[in-house]
């Protein structure tokens, strides 16, 4: 709209992928050329909450055991938790099998965490991308 962002004035800060986009905005599906990073698609499982913020789903983890309970978190809420990747190794009881699990920490940094320190787990390895990007083998 009037006084808004134009292709010519949009810098790298606006176009770049940000950690808060994880599971909410697809980092792959954006046009090439002058509109790169300005036109985006929602990720597969993303939804908007009552306040208009994008949320993505996670499986709740209790004492190192992944539950069937799914909670949607906004980027603001997500920053308060340790979240394991969807491809983490689990046993038949949905407990982490590794001594340390790769996860995103409370400040968005990836690292190795003990299973009992993990709060949530991604629900799918495809939750990061859009429906169109998820169809690519």
TrEMBL record:
Task: Could you list this entry's UniProt keywords, alphabetically sorted.
Answer: DNA-directed RNA polymerase, Nucleotidyltransferase, Transcription, Transferase
Ranges where the RNA polymerase Rpb2 domain occurs: 2-47
Pfam families referenced in this protein's UniProt entry, alphabetically: RNA_pol_Rpb2_3, RNA_pol_Rpb2_45
What positions does the domain DNA-directed RNA polymerase beta subunit external occupy?
58-124
Q: Which InterPro entries does the entry mention?
A: DNA-dir_RNA_pol_bsu_ext_1_sf, DNA-dir_RNA_pol_bsu_external_1, DNA-dir_RNA_pol_su2, RNA_pol_Rpb2_3
Gene Ontology biological process: DNA-templated transcription
Catalyzed chemical reaction(s)? RNA(n) + a ribonucleoside 5'-triphosphate = RNA(n+1) + diphosphate
Q: GO CC terms on record?
A: DNA-directed RNA polymerase complex
GO molecular-function annotation terms? Answer: DNA binding; DNA-directed RNA polymerase activity; ribonucleoside binding
EC number(s): the record gives 2.7.7.6
Q: Which family does it belong to?
A: Belongs to the RNA polymerase beta chain family.
Q: Know the name of this protein?
A: DNA-directed RNA polymerase
Organism in which the protein naturally occurs: Gallibacterium genomosp. 3
């Amino acid at each position: 709209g009037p006084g808004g962002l134009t292709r010519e004035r949009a810098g790298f800060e606006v176009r770049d992928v940000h950690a808060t986009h994880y599971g909410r905005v697809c980092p792959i599906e954006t046009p090439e050329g002058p509109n790169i990073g300005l036109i985006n698609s929602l990720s597969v499982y993303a939804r908007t909450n009552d306040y208009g913020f994008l949320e993505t789903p996670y499986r709740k983890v209790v004492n190192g055991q992944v539950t069937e309970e799914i909670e949607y978190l906004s980027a603001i809420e997500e920053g308060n938790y340790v979240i394991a990747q969807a491809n983490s190794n689990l046993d038949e009881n949905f407990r982490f099998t590794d001594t340390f699990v790769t996860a995103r920490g409370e400040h968005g940094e990836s690292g190795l965490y003990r299973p009992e320190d993990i709060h949530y787990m991604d629900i799918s390895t495809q939750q990061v991308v859009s429906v169109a990007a998820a169809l690519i083998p």
